[in-house]
TrEMBL record:
Any GO MF annotation of the entry: 3-hydroxybutyrate dehydrogenase activity
Pfam family for this entry, one: adh_short
Name the UniProt record assigns to this protein: 3-hydroxybutyrate dehydrogenase
TM helices/strands, residue ranges: none
Family in the record: Belongs to the short-chain dehydrogenases/reductases (SDR) family.
Gene Ontology BP, a term: monocarboxylic acid metabolic process
Signal peptide: none
InterPro entries reported for this sequence: 3-OHbutyrate_DH (IPR011294), NAD(P)-bd_dom_sf (IPR036291), Sc_DH/Rdtase_CS (IPR020904), SDR (IPR050259), SDR_fam (IPR002347)
Origin superkingdom: Bacteria
Organism: Vulcaniibacterium tengchongense
Length: 265
């Protein structure tokens, strides 16, 4: 494996849940990490914890749907850390509703955060990854946070499923465009992970589906796993680190499902 010690990473949505653990994992591996999130105080707290543990971190208040904010944040991280080697486009939300009741504004907000956010952050980091350094591109790794829902559908999640499927297209296109310039891309696809995003869904899904919260967990969330166990933030963070440390482009343009066997490809 290739060490990422001294590399520079930007993780969006890193004030909470999966992104937060990815930031810690990359910092433990020796990378300098920019914690980009809408929640500025949360980003500051995570950056402070990493710094207190001896790591290098920078908090960035960033709405990933705002092109100017994304560009300013990426430029700040690149200036502070001397470049950008890793982007983890992870910021996301969930809104559940049947299609006929799904507000158009909610649909647009979902696609903006998941897809526009992935596009804008990618576009902003690529000049840094394509930068010529001694006759060759600096290169880098871009990881999109997909989901098992990048591969299959569940009721009530039209916008989420659409957005998560869409990330596969972006990752594959980037793998082709970036291949000769040392840029690799992947979609990491977790099953259910107990984070605020999922905790919020349990009562909402129970109400919509007319079942108990226990049934939402055992049937809807874990019913298709091989062992009835939640995926953890650590499982996802370790997978991201593995992909960043993988030494060649033999692995690029892939989707890696981390889900206790829910959807095997
Ligand atoms: P979370 O709610 O714990 O964290 C999401 C973070 O994204 C929050 O800190 C929030 O402030 C930030 N965010 C939201 N909108 C933003 C915006 N416009 N700009 C910048 N930051 C913004 O959620 P999580 O469960 O850690 O989810 C992280 C990612 O993982 C999402 O893309 C989600 O779809 C994906 N995912 C989660 C699960 C799961 O079961 N939790 C499973 C598969 C995929």
């Amino acid at each position: 494996m290739t060490s990422i010690q001294g590399k520079s990473a930007i993780v969006t949505g890193a004030a909470s849940g999966i992104g937060r653990e990815i930031a810690f994992e990359l910092a433990r591996a020796g990378a300098a990490v920019a914690i980009a999130d809408l929640d500025a105080a949360g980003a500051q707290a995570v950056a402070g914890e990493i710094a207190a543990g001896g790591g290098r971190a920078l908090a960035l208040a960033m709405d990933v749907t705002d092109e100017a904010a994304v560009e300013a944040g990426v430029e700040r991280a690149a200036a502070e850390f001397g470049g950008v080697d890793i982007l983890v486009s992870n910021a996301g939300i969930q809104i559940v509703n049947p299609i006929e009741q799904f507000a158009f504004a909610d649909w647009k907000r979902m696609l903006a955060i998941h897809l526009d956010g992935a596009f804008l952050t990618t576009k902003a980091v690529l000049p840094h990854m394509y930068r010529d350094e001694g006759g060759r591109s600096r290169g880098g790794t871009v990881i999109y946070m997909g989901s098992v829902h990048s591969h299959l559908a569940s009721p009530l999640k039209s916008a989420y499923v659409t957005a998560k499927h869409g990330l596969l297209g972006l990752a594959r296109t980037l793998a082709k465009e970036g291949g000769r310039r040392g840029v690799r891309s992947h979609v990491v696809c977790p099953g259910f992970v107990r984070t605020p995003l999922v905790d919020k869904q349990i009562p909402e899904q129970a109400r919509e589906l007319g079942i108990s919260e226990e049934e939402v967990v055992s049937r809807v969330m874990l019913g298709h796993t091989v062992d009835g166990v939640f995926t953890t933030v650590e499982d996802v963070a370790r997978t991201v680190r593995f992909l960043c440390e993988f030494p060649s482009a033999a692995l690029t343009g892939q989707s890696i499902v981390v889900s206790h066997g829910w959807h095997m490809q």
